[in-house]
Design a protein that fits this description.
The chain is of the alpha+beta class and 588 residues long. The protein contains twelve helices and 27 strands.
């Protein structure tokens, strides 16, 4: 049973408990949100941040660390109340200021153009919620090690590190194959400058500021965050949804003054870039900038702020991938590889201040000592070493699967421009989040389940099974008929199914019959026995024929395949081919 079904059952149970006179409080409560896409484009995985303080004003007992987030395609609370299927969204709670209290609950959600989706946040006692909560895949990471000369963070798509010294520059690791590799890159004997099927350090910084780090522009020259009295680092969180790292600098001497600076980087799962948020105390009148290294031969494009998109985007594309090898020898950029880099600075007053000899610059808008910009990177070698299975599914991969390279989708300047534009709209026009609940309540069961169901007769139960089998056989008969029976094997050919789709209830297509293939055949034979409906015999014979003569090729579970198919068929028809098939096989 899937976890989201358990959640629904527990929520229904909570409702029943709450109806009892003063026995116990509901074990699980829920809050409802609406998430709306304001644009005409699809948001494949929109980043959503919910302020925990806002939820606690409605539900003082809310515990973000024990929350489970679910959603459906319902657009209103009325539709949501009738919804029978929901999905769980990976979520995480973050303590941003280190006070041992959660500040934000975050998750990602898919949104169609202009779509509104109702989101349910369930919470309750820790033991119950932790038992119900799924194990979310690890999709971000962070690490501090002197191997990196500082602090690094990553999603599956990109990895970055900032030098924790006077360089204070941000570097990039390119990834040929999606995944989390900081642990490998940071291993004592691993050399991340050399070429690898997974990726490597691809960017040369020299004396520049790197990619998206903060600096000051004094008399037309960039001044790094180097002369500081104290610098500290911390990893705020690294979970299934996002990673947040932070550096603080006390007493940065620049432009005849001292500044206290906080630099926070947030990387979301699956994204090619990160947000860099700056808080500067004592920087009034000082020009703070960011940018990338000036490399020759780059294509460049700038998008100025507008009323609907109040942000400046400056992007570069071209040969800015250094050759492999340690920094002492890797001094040239590769002419046949391209890297796209972009800075998206929020605020209508963000601008291009003019470059210096080493850096291509952007001047973000600072308001009350704060500014933020988004750093984006896309390497044209991404997915060049991606892997696919050739065995037709995870279950077959374990038996005889192999791995091959997937086709490499082209990464071009035009594609990078499109990514920058999409990211710019996502940053300036995020999804709208509205808390619909006025109090936390126990989740009601769907209305049609609240009516007591009468007991069904044996005949009615058989009729329900007939209807289900008829629908399935009618849909799948043309599919199984496309592959000649002799050619359909345990791993090849279409027409069998073993697993249902959780959201739709439909069978998933698979290759071959696998070890569960006879369960469907056996159901058809039993329905023929009970109903004497010749359609079920015809369907049973159609699928049974694909298994005959292959009994010796299955290396295990032969009894499953032969008994529920050929043995059932022989018992009802006495046909000799079924007797032969039922008695054959290496395990008989």
């Amino acid at each position: 049973m899937s976890k989201y079904i358990l959640i629904i059952l527990l929520l229904v149970g909570s409702l029943l408990w709450s109806a009892r006179p003063a026995v116990a409080a509901p074990r699980i409560k829920v809050l409802k949100l609406s998430i709306t896409n304001p644009t005409d484009e699809t948001r494949a995985h929109e980043n959503i941040v919910v302020n925990v303080a806002d939820l606690k004003r409605i539900a003082p007992d809310f515990k973000a660390g024990d929350a489970i987030v679910t959603t459906s395609d319902a657009a209103t609370l009325e539709e949501d109340a009738r919804t029978l299927q929901t999905i769980e969204l990976p979520s995480q709670a973050d303590d941003l200021d280190g006070d041992n209290k959660y500040d934000e609950l975050v998750f990602q959600i898919e949104l169609k153009p202009k779509q509104t989706r109702i989101v349910t946040i369930a919470y309750g006692d820790t033991a119950t919620m932790q038992r119900l909560r799924s194990d979310y895949p690890r999709r971000t990471a962070a690490r501090f090690t002197m191997k990196f000369d500082g602090l690094a963070w990553e999603s599956e798509a990109s990895a970055w590190r900032i030098y924790f010294d006077k360089r204070n520059a941000i570097d990039m690791f390119g990834k040929r194959r999606p995944g989390l590799y900081l642990e490998m890159f940071g291993a004592p004997e691993y050399v991340y400058h050399w070429e690898s099927p997974l990726g490597r350090d691809i960017y040369r910084i020299g004396d520049a500021i790197g990619i998206g780090s903060v600096a000051a522009l004094v008399d037309g020259k960039v001044v790094k965050v180097s002369d500081v009295a104290e610098r500290k680092w911390r990893i705020i969180s690294a979970g299934p949804v996002r990673v947040i790292v932070e550096l603080t600098y006390k007493g940065w001497k620049v432009g005849g003054r001292e500044i206290n600076l906080t630099s926070r980087m947030t990387q979301w799962a699956g994204k090619h870039g990160f947000e860099h948020r700056i808080t500067a105390d004592g920087a009034n009148g000082l020009t703070l900038v960011t940018g990338v290294v000036r490399h020759p031969g780059l294509q460049e494009k700038t998008f100025a702020p507008t009323a609907t998109e109040p942000a400046l985007a400056r992007l570069w594309w071209g040969p800015q991938v250094e050759e492999e090898g340690p920094p002492a020898t890797a001094i040239h950029n590769l002419p046949d590889q391209n890297l796209g880099l972009a800075i998206i600075a929020t605020g209508a007053e963000s601008k291009v201040p003019g470059d210096d000899p080493l850096n291509l610059l952007v001047q973000p808008q600072f308001t009350n000592g704060q500014a933020s910009w988004y750093v984006l990177g896309l390497w044209d070698q991404e997915n060049s070493d991606n892997l696919l299975t050739t065995a037709g599914g995870a279950e077959n991969k374990a038996r005889q699967g192999s791995l091959v390279l997937a086709p490499n989708a082209p990464v071009t300047f035009a594609a990078f421009v499109d990514l920058v534009r999409q990211t710019m709209r996502r940053v300036t026009q995020p999804a709208r989040v509205e808390i619909l609940s006025r109090e936390a309540v126990a989740q009601s069961a769907p209305p049609d389940t609240l009516r007591p169901a009468r007991t069904k007769t044996y005949t009615e139960a058989i009729d329900l099974l007939k209807q289900s089998a008829e629908r399935t056989a009618t849909k799948w008969e043309p599919i199984v008929s496309r592959t000649p029976a002799a050619q359909l094997t345990r791993d090849q050919g279409l027409g069998f199914f073993s697993e249902g789709e959780n959201q739709t209830g439909e069978w998933k297509e698979q290759k071959g019959f696998y070890w569960t293939g006879s369960f469907w055949v056996g159901e058809l034979w039993l329905l023929y026995e009970k109903t004497k409906d010749e359609r079920f015999r015809r369907w049973a014979e159609l699928w049974n024929a694909t298994l005959l003569g292959k009994e010796m090729t299955e290396n295990h579970d032969t009894g499953f395949l032969n008994y529920y198919s050929s043995v059932f068929g022989y018992r009802l028809t006495k046909a000799p081919q079924y007797r032969e098939g039922g008695c054959a096989g290496p395990n008989v």
